[in-house]
Amino acid sequence: MNFRKVIVKYIWRGEVCEEFPDKGVYYEDRGLVIRCDQWGEVKIYQAEPVEGTDVVIVAEHADDFLEDNQDFFLDLIMSGGATE
Q1: Band of residue 74 on the pLDDT scale cut at 50, 70, 90
Q2: What pTM was estimated for this model as a whole?
Q3: Ramachandran bin of 29, using left for φ above 0, alpha for ψ from -120 to 50, beta for the remaining angles
Q4: What backbone torsions phi and psi does residue 79 show, to the nearest 5 degrees?
Q5: Which own/partner pairs from 65-71 qualify as long-range (CB within 8 Å, at least 24 positions apart)?
């Protein structure tokens, strides 16, 4: 159960966008981040950590694993991110 609070940045037009980062919780074992934006919207993405920092990067046009999948979100929180 390895998770940590991170800053979430996004690839936009092929580059890491430094504007509008979000906060999130990164589950290292799964490579997933639950991110929350400044308005409280929650999404779950596959993310890549930036070594030596508390930053993770989400690819441009990444799939939102939360979309149409409420149980996945709840299971992820309840398990602390542990893989099944």
Answers
A1: confident
A2: 0.87
A3: alpha
A4: -90, -5
A5: 65/32, 66/42, 67/43
User: Which amino acid is present at 20?
Assistant: F
Residues counted in the chain: 84
Domain ranges of the chain: 3-79
pLDDT tens-digit readout, 28-48: 989 999 999 999 999 999 999
- Tell me what the pLDDT averaged over the chain comes to: 90
Residues whose CB falls within 8 Å of the CB of residue 3, separated by 6 or more in sequence, listed in order: 25, 26, 27, 28, 80, 81
